[in-house]
C-alpha cells in the first residue's frame, strides 16, 4: 500500500510526438488515492493522448509513467489493467454481438475448472449493475441497448475490475440526468474506497461539483494545476481557451411579428419512437428541442427528413405539403441536417477532407466529371469561413480534432445553401472555444433569414439560443415553451411529463 | 476498432509508404516480368505477350466490375456462373436466330445485345436482393452462383452447348482478330479499364462508391441513394461479365457446366492484389488491371520453365496473393512506434 498522500499514478515529464508533430510537452500529473482529479482542455489540447498514455494504449515519446513511485512501461492496455489502471472510453468499446455479462467479463472470464462459471459471473454482473441503479438485463445483447445503457455497461465493466486508478473520458456525454447523478454517487463511493479518479469533461459544472483537484492543458502544455477549491468556472474556462469569453450566447435575432411559417409538421407518428408530435418553424427563428435522451426528438426529426419511416404525419414547407422520402428530397427543399453522431453518420473518417466536404452536394461540382479545381476552391473557402484549423496537413477526417471535425461537418451541411438548418447536439464533446463559434454561427444564420431547429440536451444551450423550446417526453411532444417560460425548471417539468401532455392539441383546437 | 489507431495514422502517412501503396502492384508486376525474362527469353516475344494479355482480358474485364462492387462494400461470387449462363443462353439464342437471319452479322449483334441485357438483369437481381432484402452480398451471390451454374448445366442437358459453325466463322475474329496489331480482347480490356478509371475516380458515382464502402450510414446521411448506387455496381458488374462472355464465346464456340469455374475467385484475387480493400472504401482500377495480368503471367511463366510443375500454378498464385496483401497491410502500419 502506498501512503495516502503519495501519488498512486503519476506522469513525469511526458512528451509525445505524432510524426513531426508534438502534441504533449513535458506534462506532470499525479493522481492520489481517494481524489477526483479533473483534466480540462479544448479539443486537441492533448487530453485524450495523455490519458491513453496513462492507460497503456500509447507509449510516451519521452518521460515516464509511474505507479506508486515505480516506473512502468505499459505495452498494452492489458498491462495497465493488471496494475489496476482502468479506462472508460469516450467511444464505446463493447463487443456488440455479445451479451452484457459476456462483455463485462470479456478477457477475464470466471471459470470453474475448464468451463465458464456463468452463475458466478451473472451474480457479480448483477451486483455491479445494481450499484449503478440501471435495469439493464445481464443477458441482453449490447447492440440492443441504448447508447446511455451501453455507457453504463462500460462503467460496470470498469468497476467489476480490481480498480485502483479509474480514468473516465467524457463519461456523461450520453447519459441522462438521472444516470449522471447515479454516476456521481458511484464516484463518491469509489473515492471513499481510495480509488484515484481522473475525470475528463467539458462540462465545467460537473467538474465544479466533483473534482478535488484540477489540471488544465492547452495546446499540449500544462497551463494550470492545483486544488479545485478557490478556482472558479470562469477562470478555468479562460485558462482553457487562453482568452476571456464573455458573450457565450449571442443576442437572439429579433423575430418579425409576421414572420411566415417555413416548415410545419403535423401529427407525426414514428413506430416505436414518436407517439404524437406537431410543430411549426418560422422564418428567422431558432426552435429548440428539449427532453431527455431517448424522448424521441431525433426520431421525430429524422422521420420528417425521410431518414426513417413514419406511419403517420404530414410535412408542409412554406405552407405546401411536401413528400420527403429521402434526405435528397429534403436537400432539394433546402433543409440541411447536422447529425449528432459525427463519426458514425457525419463524416467518412478514412476519406480526405475535401471529398468529405463536397459529399452532400457533389453534383454542384460535376459537369459531368468532377471538377477537382472547383471542388478544391470551394473547400478552401469553407476552411476560411468555418475556421477549420488544419494543425498538420491532415489527410483524412479521422485526424482532425473533435471540434474541427464538427466544423467540417457544419461546412458540409451548409454546402447546399439551406434555408432551414436542423442541428442535433451540435456541441457534444466540444470545447468552449468551438462552442462559442457555433453559437455565433447560429446567430449569423438567423440574421440571414434562415431558420434553425436545435436539438440539444444541454439546457443552457436551449435557453440561451432558442426563441421557442419544444419539449418531448417519451415520444410525445408535451409542449412548446415561449418567452418567460423558457427556463430550466419549466423545461424539466415538460421533459419529465409532469406538465403539459396534450397541450398541443388544445392550442390548435 | 482499436481506439489507439486514429492517433497513429498521421505517422503512417509518410511519403515512402504512400508511394509503396500506389506503385506496389506495378513494381511487383515488373519484378515478375523480369523473372519471366530470366527464366526464358521467349517470355518477351510479341506472340507470348499478346497471347498472355488476351487471356488475362476475361478475368481483367470481370475484375474491373468487381472493383466497383467491392469498393462499395459488396461482393459478387456469382460472376463465374453468370458468365457460363450468359454464354449458354447466348449460344442457344444465336443458334435459333440462324434459321431466321442466317449466320450473319445480325445474328451476332442480336446475340451480343441479349448477352448485355442478360448481364444487366442478372446484376440487377443481385443488387436488388442484397439491398432491398437486406441480405449479405456474400449469401445472395452464393445463392445466385449456384442457380446460374445449375441453369447452364440444365440448358446443356449435362453436356456442351455448341455454336452453329456458320456463326462461329463470322464471330471468330472477335477473339482471334486484331486491330493495329493489338488483339481485340486486349483492346476491349483497355477500353473497359479506361472507362472504369474515369467512372471510379472522376464521377459522382465513383465517389459515392468510396463513401458507401467506407461507411454506409454516412453516405445515407449525405443524401446519397445508397441502395440505388449499390445496385448499380452490381449491374455494372453484370455488364462487365457479359462483355467478357462476348469475347469468350468465339474462343471455343461452346459453353458447358464447366465454363467459367472459379472465375469469381480469380477476379476477386486480381482486385485485391491491385490494392482495393476487400472491406470496401478504397478501390483502384489500374491496380486491378495489373492484378489480372499478374495472375495470367504466373501461369505463363510456369509454362515456360521446367523448374516448377505447371500443376503448382494455384500454389504460386495463392502465395502471391497473400504476399501482395501482406505487403500492402504492412505499409499501413509500418512506421508505428
TrEMBL record, chain B:
Q: Which GO terms describe its cellular component?
A: plasma membrane
**PANTHER family in the record:** ABC TRANSPORTER PERMEASE PROTEIN YPHD-RELATED-RELATED, RIBOSE IMPORT PERMEASE PROTEIN RBSC
- Chief location: membrane
- Topology with regard to the membrane? Multi-pass membrane protein
Annotated compartments: Cell inner membrane
Residues annotated as transmembrane: 23-44, 82-98, 104-125, 137-156, 176-200, 231-249, 285-302, 308-327
Q: What is the lineage of its organism?
A: Bacteria, Pseudomonadati, Pseudomonadota, Gammaproteobacteria, Oceanospirillales
| UniProt xrefs under Pfam families | BPD_transp_2
Gene Ontology terms for molecular function: transmembrane transporter activity
Q: Does the keyword Transmembrane apply?
A: yes
Q: What is this protein called?
A: ABC transporter permease
Keywords on this record? Cell membrane, Membrane, Transmembrane, Transmembrane helix
Per the record, the similarity remark reads: Belongs to the binding-protein-dependent transport system permease family. AraH/RbsC subfamily.
Specify whether Amino-acid biosynthesis is a keyword of the entry: no
